[in-house]
Amino acid sequence: MKVNQNDLLTAIRCYFEVEKKFNVKNYIRTKFYLGSIAEKRGFFIANKGKENLEAFEYYLKGDNIRESAKKSGLGIRDCSLIVNTFLNAMISEVLEDKKQGSITEMEFIQRKRTKRQIIKKWNDYMSTFSHENDVKSKK
């Protein structure tokens, strides 16, 4: 069972503003975002009685699949399937809430302007007054 990366990105964007070039394969940030989403939604409390939930908790707290499997007493493949199952369940809950309209996707973070863009904007603004104050940009 695999996790759909587009749905994962959409679920993250429902709770956090990310860069347009954000890659869900940046595992450290993705786990941080997912852990925060699980905490905000009360995912662990709602699924408290489910079997092997602790493997998913270990995974979101920063352990890789191998370490999560070792701590949970599971095989690596089994742990991977369990983590992906819980992850897909959480993503589907978020997407269902988005579909119902209770949450919306956030915008992407604006990129920082380059020095060249700042100088051009300044020169355009100053050209309305005079040409004496032009700042030259390095090329």
What does it look like?
With 139 residues, this protein is an all-alpha fold. The protein has two domains: 5-108, no CATH class; 111-139, no CATH class. 58% of the residues lie in helices and 0% in strands. The chain contains seven helices and no strands. The longest helix has 25 residues, at 76-100. The termini are far apart. 17% of the residues are buried. The mean pLDDT is 88.
Radius of gyration: 22 Å
Overall domain count: 2
Please give the alpha-carbon distance between the first and last residues.
Answer: 51 Å
Number of helices: 7
User: How many strands in all?
Assistant: 0
Shape by Cα distribution: elongated
Q: What summary fits the major beta sheet?
A: none
Tell me, rounded to a whole number, the average pLDDT: 88
- Name the quaternary structure: single chain
Q: State the low-pLDDT regions, or none.
A: none
User: What string gives the helices and strands in order?
Assistant: HHHHHHH
Class computed from helices, strands and strand pairing: mainly alpha
Estimate the helix proportion, in percent: 55-70%
Beta-strand portion reads: under 5%
